[in-house]
Amino acid sequence: MKVNQNIAKYQKYPVFKYENRTWPNTELTKAPIFCSVDLRDGNQALPNPMGIDAKLKFFDMLVEIGFKEIEIGFPSASDTEYNFLRRLIEENRIPEGVKVQVLVQAREHLIAKTYEALKGVKEAVVHVYNSTSTAQRKMVFKKSKEEIKEIAIDGANIVKKYAAMYPESKFTFEYSPESFTGTEMEYALEVCEAVLNEWQPTTYNKAIINLPATVEMTTPNVFADQIEWFCNNLKNRESVIISLHTHNDRGTGVAATELGLMAGADRVEGTLFGNGERTGNLDILTVAMNYYSQGIEPTIYMENINKIIKVYKECTGMTVHERHPYAGELVYTAFSGSHQDAINKGLKTYNDRKEKVWDVPYLPLDPADIGRLYEPIIRINSQSGKGGVAYILEAEYGYKIPKAMQPEISYHVQKETDKFGRELENAEIFNIFNEKFINIVDPNTIHSFSYSFDNTKEDSMVVKANITINGIIKDVVGVGNGPVSAFFNAIEPMLKDTYEFITYDEHALSDGQSAEAAAYIQLKNQNGITHYGVGKDGNIDSASIRAIMSALNGFEKR
Ligand code: KIV
Ligand code: ZN
User: Fold this and answer.
1) Ligand 1 geometric centre to CA of 23 (Å)
2) Residue 121, CA distances (Å) to 94, 114, 447 in order
3) Which partner for 62 in 13, 67, 174, 267 could form a disulfide, CB atoms 3.0-4.6 Å apart?
């Protein structure tokens, strides 16, 4: 067996276990408070951080989609963020009910500058933090537990002192023990309680304790145990909003947040599409949409996901992966034939049913709900099945392909995809269908056609036609019980082979006076080979006659 040379340098992160956990038995029934940290944590991680104009545009979009708490930056550390905040306040851009949040380190001169930047704000969250983890205490700050706790207490005290200098504003205080998940739980609790002791929150004036997985270190269940233990052991829990702030180093930021919410948290910080340091922050839209797709009001609205993506890309310079949950370009596209077939059936059932309950296979969400169209759900490549092709011909072009005909069309489409080695556009699929099946006039052609009734006979329909068959132009007459059989009887003596008439289908192609009709006729030759032809005409009888000619010509071209 091959051995990984470097594996010995890694060690298992100590697993925190809360034996009294109840979170596995809980269910998420109400969305948490969502706080966007795009303009701070997300922005901090951009190769080219946003300028003021981009931040204003992004902020407006966050407000538009429903965020009520928005961390706008680190005004004490960056002139851009200071000036951005001033513009938000001075230009009255913060709507009623929306709180801006600012981050600041637990140091007096930075806190003082932060309040200066907030002057005149109606409501804001002042978010102070210091790192409490074992690794940071030892290696970065080289301080004892007591000294680190003192930094937090001082910060809390100063935050409160300065808030009192701005009585016209309403402030909520937030504290983060940065690297919470790398901190001993008892110690994290001790520091947070010391901070809360300074703030003395009440049920009417709650403080926020934000518990970050600054770097994701373990499986989400361990995080949930930490959160439940913390919530259960925190004094005066009802006066505190417990907030989560997960990063995504192990790729389970969303899972950790969801389990943390099951474990008792009230609030979530994250970014759109998970932008943020390294592998990013929590993808907050995914969490919101996970609620939505379970029928729980998310309070964040993704009705126009394309617009959100557009603004996000313009402002951050980042992209959204094609397979990104809910938002990616390919998320509502099925390539596999069996998936396409199942989606078709699911959509049909959904559309036919009075009671609108979304239960479509392979589509956890109705794409229309977020401004996506059904159109790109099915794209045709060499893996696609007949159902997908039929879906496109019906959804895009109005042709209700009989089930028995679908394999025949699919055969030609597959041949084409194999030839090109790529998926086909809808128009290309229609071209194949059109060229191979509809109103085919080569080599056999119908030049004119008329019919009349003869009420005295059983086979009352008389068809007269002028046709070219096998290179011979001729006037023919036939009788039958309808135009199709009469025409078929008229031309039969001229045919080289014998054909049996197998099936007939027809439908109107469009509504209104100028409606055209489509007719589908399947013939079988003496060798048992079947072939479909399609006729399209303003007159259904003419469409049927054309369909017969198309089918005959199809045999010629096999
Ligand atoms: O990831 C983190 O720990 C942070 C804190 C400042 C909350 O961003
Ligand atoms: Zn963070």
Assistant:
1) 24
2) 9, 12, 82
3) 67
